[in-house]
Every structure is written in C-alpha cells, then in structure tokens.
UniProtKB/TrEMBL annotation, chains A, B:
The keyword Electron transport does not apply. The keyword Transcription applies. InterPro entries: Homeodomain-like_sf (IPR009057), HTH_TetR (IPR001647), Tet_transcr_reg_TetR-rel_C_sf (IPR036271), TetR_C (IPR011075). This is TetR/AcrR family transcriptional regulator.
DNA sequence: CGCATTTTGTACTTACAAGTCAAAAATTGG
DNA sequence: CCAATTTTTGACTTGTAAGTACAAAATGCG
C-alpha cells in the first residue's frame, strides 16, 4: 500500500552507475545524481539513504553487468588464443569507443577509494578475483585442448592476464591512439 | 625586498604531493594542505594561487622524482633481464611497503582526472611515454647483447612493460598478498 | 629612521555538498 | 469515502570548500 514510486529504482541505479563511473565518487554530487535520474532529492534519500549507499548499489550493478559481459565474450566458439585475443581487442575497442573514456569502473574505484572505503575495496577485489579465475580457467582449457603448453602456470598467467586487462583499461583513459593497446594485446597473446 | 617567506615553497610542494597522492585531487581540501604544509591559508594562496596550480606543481614534482628513480634502478650493472626483474620487484615491494598503499600518483591521477583535467592528463601521458621509452631502450640493449631474441619487437614490448607496470601499481592498491604481483612479474620476464 | 614591498594570520564571503523535514499527493484495505 | 501508509516536492539546515580581504609584521633601501 502507500503511494507507489514514480520511478524505477533499478533504472535509477543504472543512471547513478553511469554518473559515478564518469566522474568518480568524490566528484559526484547529489545534484548530479538527481539530475541524471530525474527525481527529487527527497526521493533519492528516501529510496537509497545516502550517496554512499547508492554508490555501493551502483558498483554492485557494475560488477554484475561486467561479469556477464566477460563470460559471454569467452563463451563463443573457437581456439582459446583466438577467443582471448578477440576478447581483449573487443574490450580495448569498447573502452576507446566510449566518448567519455571512462575506462573500467572497478579500476577507477580502486585508484580512488582503495584503503579508505572498505566496502568498495572488497567489491573491487572480488571483481578482480573473478576475472583472474576466468582467465585461469581459460588457460587450463587451452592446456586440455593441447593448444597451450603445459608448462605455463595457469595461476600465474591468470594473474598476468588480469594485470594486463587492468593496465589496458587504465591506459585506455589516456591513450591517444589505439595502436599502443593493440600492440600490448598482440604481444601478450603471442607469448602465451 | 619585502618580507621573506617563513617556509620553503619546495618543501611545501613536497608535502602537498604526498597529500594529493594519498587522497586524490577532489578529496583533498585546502585545509588538508595547510595542515600538512604547516602554513596559513593566506600563505598558501599567496604563494600558489589555487588548489589546482599547487596540484600541478605536485604532479610535476612527482614526475621528476619518479623519472630519476626509474632510471637509477635500470642503471645498475648486470644482464638486462636480471635488471628488469629486479626493478619490477623493487617497484612492487615499495608499493606494498607503503602503509597507505598509495600506488602510483600518475596512475591514480589518470583514473581520477583523465579527460576532465587537460594539464594533468598531458603530464600523465608524458610520464607514461617516458617509461615506455625506457623499457623500449632496455629491450634494445638486451638485443644488442644477444640476451633477448631479435624477433621481439622492442616498441611492442616497451608498451607491454609499461602496461604491466601500470597494472601492477594499481593492483598494489588492492592486493591482499604480495605473491600475485610476484607471479605477474616472473611470468612476464620469463616470457621475454 | 622612514618607506615601499612582500608575507602572514585571521576573519570574512560565497557557493555548494549532503542531508532533513513537513506538508501535499497518491495509493490500497476496510 | 475514510484511514493508514508511503512517495513526492521543495524549502530549509548545517557544515565546509575554496578563495578573498585586510591589517599587522617583517624585510631592504635611501
């Protein structure tokens, strides 16, 4: 009962995510948020409680959407190295195509809030761990299909590939041309 | 003539750099700065003009100190791959030893201000380009001494190593244990 | 010394960040 | 339709960010 909400909280989180993603946490004001969502300040605080609580929801939303995106990219058919190269290229392409060049929200959050925001730090750590595990599983799959040499340590290469992606997504924020990222991707996959 | 300054502007920039490095640009207040430097607000604005102008000086100071540090690490004797591994390990060790886990100020600045702050963006781009060039030169040196296979593209590996360092320094902000970084370094150098 | 010049400390200003609150509005169950 | 409940609107509050203003203090110079 009671008056129903005039807006979709789910869509509101989505909008908030995009603002936080573009401006970062500290530089985002409640005014930015209500403008982007299209509601009044009362509704915002009535629904979400605080800027920080909304940020946490936005970061979780980002995690969920990215987790799906990465897994989908890996699931297409083909040899492991082909899929890996295609995934990394697509990621770089998407980052560079973003007119705001926001890069990766998890990476940005790590750079801004690691150490000062417990919740955000743990969310980022989990996202990184998931990505690392996905890479590790991909390496193992490549070894089962005898496409990747068995002496490659899957755990080490999972860490390496996570590290590479984190680097790429930060570089995408300042890279002037796409070729530097492409060279990194090719050199990395070629040495696997 | 006129009254002489009661403080060392150079030391003030150093203190400001440390505050900006730890908290980021947006989260740093003028009060934080005057507290860290130990001067009054009047002196701060009389000397530096604005928070942003002081940030620019701090970022330049960071660039200068880091440029020296990296070159010094490379200049020690020994085979190229040994020096490379030692340098990367030392970098990771230093990042993890920092009680505040501030990582790299250039990386943090890229994540926070790329796209919105022209001056900061260009400074970061230059820092990255310098690092990339240093790695590229190191690869070429290794090829001249026949330690590194001539088919390795020095430019591509320069980009790759820059990307790896950027990734490592961001990972250092959220890494729970040092072994993940160590594995990345070893796997990278081993595949060279 | 007296004067021009520069720095310093502190009070002040303006604007806005983050959040609160009360009253009006919209809903459903009885 | 009434009562209870919840949302919305928008004004209001509190604190602080960023910077300004100005008088007092400290210097070198003639």
């Amino acid at each position: 009962m009671g008056r129903p909400k005039q807006f979709d909280p789910d869509a509101a989180v989505e909008h908030a995510m995009n603002v936080f993603w573009r401006k970062g946490y500290a530089a985002t004001t409640p005014q930015d948020l209500v403008d982007a969502i299209g509601i009044g300040k009362g509704s915002l605080y009535n629904t979400f409680g605080s800027k920080h609580a909304l940020f946490e929801l936005a970061l979780r939303r980002y995690r969920d959407s990215q987790a799906v995106a990465l897994i989908e990219m890996f699931e297409e058919p083909g040899p492991v190295k082909v899929r890996l190269r295609r995934t990394l290229r697509l990621l770089a392409e998407m980052d560079l195509a973003d007119p705001d060049r926001r890069g990766c929200m998890a990476v940005n959050t790590a750079a801004e809030l690691a150490g000062t925001d417990q919740v955000a730090t743990e969310l980022v750590q989990h996202m990184f761990a998931r990505t690392e595990d996905a890479f590790c599983a991909l390496i193992e799959e490549g070894q089962r299909s005898e496409e990747i040499a068995p002496e490659r340590d899957p755990a080490a290469w999972g860490s390496l590939l996570l590290n590479t992606v984190v680097g790429l997504r930060l570089m995408a924020r300042v890279a002037e041309t796409p070729d530097r990222l492409a060279r990194v991707i090719d050199a990395t996959v070629d040495s696997l």
